[in-house]
Amino acid sequence: MTAAPSRLSLWAPVGACMALIFWLSSMSSPPSPGAVNDKVLHFAAYGGLATLCLRATSGGRLTGLTPRAALVAWLLATGYGVTDELHQRYVPHRTADVADLVADALGAAVAVGGLGASGIIARSRAAQPPR
Tens of pLDDT along 68-107? Predict the structure, then answer.
């Protein structure tokens, strides 16, 4: 049996991802990978943040992916998206955009939903008797 991950190892990546998002949103003209749509970038970034949040809220275990862990992860990622849009109101040449927030929330929901399904499968397999 392996030791449970420490709180630091679970939450440090969440903090690092949030810091990266904050740093990028603090730029008047952040770098963009080619002609990728801004909403796609928001979707991907907040899907990644939600994935890290879900890893932390589930204790780093697939069997720990409960509906509560998924909801908390989605709320954390989406809530951070709200604060990030508010932050951008004060960055020169940036604006708060509801469409960006929608992309953030959808990216987080898709990530949490997909991983949540994996958790359901893992729990059902763990509950089955060995063959």
Answer: 999 999 999 999 999 999 999 999 999 999 999 999 999 9
pLDDT category of residue 42 using cuts at 50, 70 and 90:
very high
- Give CA–CA dist 64/37, Å, rounded: 34
Q: Distance between CA 78 and CA 121 in Å, rounded?
A: 25
Burial classification of residue 51, based on how many CB atoms lie within 10 Å of its CB (0-12 exposed, 13-18 middle, 19 or more buried): buried
CB neighbour list of residue 49: distance below 8 Å, 6 or more residues apart: 14, 17, 18, 21, 76, 77, 80, 108
Structure token digits, residue 12 = 């440090």
How many C-beta atoms surround the C-beta of residue 32 within 10 A?
A: 11
Domain ranges of the chain: 37-127
Q: What is the pLDDT of residue 50?
A: 98
- DSSP E strand boundaries for the chain: none
Encoded amino acid at 50, one letter: A
